[in-house]
Design brief:
The chain is an alpha+beta fold. The chain has a domain at 571-695. The protein is built from 23 helices and 28 strands. 50% of the residues are buried.
């Protein structure tokens, strides 16, 4: 792949370097700076291990800093004090991931059209209207209140800027050359933007307005039937029958608890599958008596990777783990006393309010018997090769008016305000700083108390053999059903009355079962006294993980690796027997009998070489779309029932939604199963004729790991990895296990890690995608807190002496 990539660039360089410093089209940046042989792609593709001394201003350091790179380009940064440590982290991270860092913050700030032109103006408009920058500014205020931590954030930014300052035009990361612009200086505000970018990715999916439409069309009884708050058979994160030792807060319920309305348009949401797996097993279940923690975080699979591995060392502490480029410290990892990891806690922390303005000027809006004043913010969008665009965003005390007559342009919405926890002042950076330095369960609790959004399930293990998990975030105190539908902004009882205290958030320490796990499922059983809701709780991975951990004894690290890569399809186990039992096999012949028997004999392992997973997934999707065709609407945003409830209805008789819209006859479930099975056979035949081979799961499902700009030659089109959505090994077409971490709390602590990418953000570097093949094959890199020695395979050692 790398040879082909170099050949392609070489051919392009020879063919088109001359004359490309003139734009081909007004909105397309010139490519000459990118392709110029001595300062373009080739310079970026050079070996990234070279002397830092010539590019770093050593006067920026108080004491010597030593940086070692191992054979995978993972840096170990050693400093005598934290200001120098985080300066060096910023410098080193920017050295390998600068363009990625800046691009992600541009997304959050709504500034893509400055680079890409008018085509991304609507993306910028919605991100500003959602208030990502507004939330980042509030987070920055909180960070500044913690003077010591803010000074470290500033040192991280200083390190990034020291690297930027060292660059000549020919040294710029190649994406800057391709797009013809230069990096901006970094700041703590940009780090806050990055955290809000992650908050949007992990808490920005909600369906309140879609729910409102369904409620209006089909009524409350049907809504509750199709979309229950929780599903039968789920395995909550906190072990069942947990006794809560607090007196719960109460909240008054409004009489008019939702708005009767039809909503015509919504913006594109983040992937609801953004989640993760994590678990921890205690000393009584492991072979050597040391707890083992495992975490794999499911996010978009991109190049450069979301994660950057590093080790941070001072005389006071050592920590290894995964950082997010642009954020200080380690996000998930371990030190010599504790290990921690996270999964998305899936909580509804965005609510929508219909605003009643006094008049078209929108200077005031009704709130009970009062008229409150709005604040108007004029957003200026700089657009490449175009005149600036201006958008006025109206703010209420709930938050920004996202939808009105100006956005989207086809909307008839009068004014819907977004209230989101991510808008509120918070200091998530302190959580990670304290975890990096933590020594025990009490330190872990103190650290996560600062964490607000996006809500996370923090799993924990300690060298003293404690294990724990906490569902942590800042959660509104709501009456039942509050925020599931569009709310009345004029009614003060529709306001969030308060917040659930940190001490009341669900958690468990050293349970009798000896294990704890989370996979984005419903967090608690019915004994928990507060109302909990989210539109998309996971229902399959968590059951499989729970079953496997329950059965395991004498657990070793390899068992945890095997479980992270488990490809058992729980959804198929629960649904396929029902589908086959209702299908009249007596009517089948030829290839259809072969397919039927293959499915009937399938062991539910979603392996690449098997045909059954391909048969099942095609059949399931066709059946699902036939069954819920009423919820596919070009004029109104709706949501379809979840897979787990679809499975429940496969046993139903005379189910009204089985009738297909647009056909003269009245279908039932048996008709849909027969039709979808026949359609599946047609799809298989078409695929095999086109591909000239028999279908298999590996042939049908390819997992692409794409460059952020979707440039094919900078992407991996098929990583050859098994599994799928709803499976523990959750790799789908472009989404999945963005990193896998396993930590054994032995003495010394041992770790294993892998992710689908590489440490370098430079296409062409041998460290750009070198970890994808071992990731797909199920291999891991062993890691530890041990200091590098001359006996190790160290690529580069640099001591910077002021």
């Amino acid at each position: 792949m790398k040879v082909i990539r170099f050949l392609l660039v070489s051919i392009i360089t020879i063919a088109v370097t001359v004359g490309l410093n003139v734009k081909l089209f007004d909105k397309i940046p010139p490519l000459g700076a990118f392709l110029e042989p001595f300062g373009g792609f080739w310079q970026n593709a050079n070996d990234e291990i070279s002397s830092l001394e010539s590019i770093i201003d050593i006067n920026s350091l108080q004491n010597p800093v030593t940086i070692h790179y191992d054979q995978h380009l993972i840096p170990s940064i050693t400093a005598e004090n934290e200001p120098d440590l985080y300066f060096a982290q910023g410098f080193v991270t920017a050295r390998h991931r600068l363009w990625q860092m800046e691009m992600q913050t541009r997304v959050a700030a709504g500034r893509l059209s400055e680079i890409f032109g008018e085509s991304l103006l609507e993306v910028d408009r919605i991100n500003r209207r959602k208030g990502l920058a507004y939330g980042a500014k509030n987070a920055l205020k909180s960070a500044k209140e913690d003077t010591a931590l803010f000074q470290l954030l500033q040192r991280y930014a200083d390190g990034v800027n020291a690297y930027i300052g060292s660059l000549g035009k020919g040294d710029l990361p190649l994406e800057y050359k391709m797009l013809d612009y230069e990096p901006e200086l970094w700041s703590p505000y940009k780090s806050m933007l990055l955290l809000k970018y992650m908050a949007d990715m992990l808490s920005g999916y909600e369906t309140d307005l879609e729910n409102t439409n369904i409620l209006k069309i089909w009524g409350k009884d049907t809504f509750d039937l199709l979309f229950p708050d929780r599903n039968i058979g789920d395995k909550p994160i906190i072990p069942t029958n947990h006794q809560w030792d607090f007196e719960p807060m109460t909240v008054p319920e409004a009489d008019d608890n939702y708005i009767d309305a039809l909503v015509s348009s919504v913006y594109n949401k983040p992937d609801p599958g953004n989640g993760s797996n994590n678990w921890v097993v205690g000393p009584d279940k492991t072979a050597d008596g040391a707890p083992i923690l495992a975490n794999d975080m499911h996010l978009p699979l991109n190049l450069p990777s979301i994660w950057f591995l590093l080790k941070l060392n001072t005389p006071q502490h050592q920590v290894f783990g995964a950082s997010i480029p642009g954020s200080m410290g380690v996000i998930a990892g371990f030190n010599d006393s504790i290990a921690w990891g996270m999964t998305n806690a899936k909580r509804d922390v965005i609510d929508w309010y219909k605003i009643n303005f006094r008049d078209k000027k929108k200077n005031e809006y009704q709130y009970g018997n009062q008229w409150l004043k709005t604040q108007k913010v004029v957003e200026k969008f700089e657009i490449r090769a175009e005149e600036p665009f201006y958008d006025t965003v109206v703010y209420t005390h709930y938050g920004p008016i996202v939808y009105d007559e100006n956005y989207p342009s086809s909307s008839n919405l009068e004014g819907y305000a977004m209230k989101w926890i991510a808008h509120e002042p918070s200091n998530e950076q302190k959580t990670f700083y304290l975890l990096n330095n933590g020594n025990n369960y009490q330190d872990y609790q103190q650290a996560i108390a600062y964490y607000q959004c996006p809500a996370q399930n923090f799993v924990f293990a300690a060298s003293n053999k404690d294990i724990a998990i906490h569902v942590q975030g800042k959660f509104p105190l709501k009456w039942p059903q509050q925020g599931k539908y569009l709310l009345n902004g004029s009614n003060p009882l529709h306001e969030w009355q308060s917040y659930i205290p940190f001490e009341h958030n669900p958690g468990s320490l050293n349970p009798e079962s000896g294990h704890l796990s989370s996979a984005n499922q419903y967090p608690v059983d019915s004994l928990y006294p507060y109302y909990i809701y989210d539109a998309y709780y996971e229902d399959f991975r968590n059951r499989r993980i729970h079953e496997q951990l329950e059965a395991m004894q004498n657990i070793e690290v390899q068992d945890m690796m095997n479980l992270q890569q488990d490809v058992f399809n729980k959804k198929a186990e629960l649904s396929l027997p029902k589908m086959l039992n209702r299908l009249d096999s007596n009517t089948l012949a030829g290839r259809s009998i072969e397919v039927y028997q293959t499915l009937k004999n399938w062991d539910y392992m979603t392996s690449l070489n098997k045909a059954a997973p391909a048969y099942y997934e095609i059949w399931w999707k066709k059946l699902y779309n036939l069954l819920w065709d009423e919820f596919t609407n070009d004029t109104l945003p709706l949501r379809q029932p979840e897979a787990i409830n679809t499975i429940r209805f496969l046993d139903a008789e005379n189910f009204a939604f089985a009738d297909v819209v647009g056909t003269p006859q009245k279908e039932n479930l048996d008709d849909l199963l027969r039709q979808s099975f026949a359609s599946m056979l047609d799809s298989i035949s078409t695929w095999e004729e086109t591909e000239t081979q028999e279908i298999s799961w590996g042939g049908l499902k390819s997992t692409a790991i794409q460059h952020l700009l979707k440039i094919p030659s900078f992407s991996i089109q098929d990583a050859g990895v098994a599994g799928y959505r709803n499976i523990v090994n959750a790799n789908s077409e472009n989404h999945g296990a963005s990193i896998r971490i396993i930590v054994q709390m032995s003495n010394p602590v041992k770790g294993w890690v892998i992710y689908p990418g590489g440490q370098s953000g430079t296409p062409g570097s041998k460290y750009y995608d070198n970890l994808i093949a071992p990731w797909a094959q199920g291999d891991y890199l062993p890691v530890s807190l041990a200091q590098p020695t001359t006996d190790e395979n160290i690529l580069f050692t640099q001591t910077l002496n002021p």
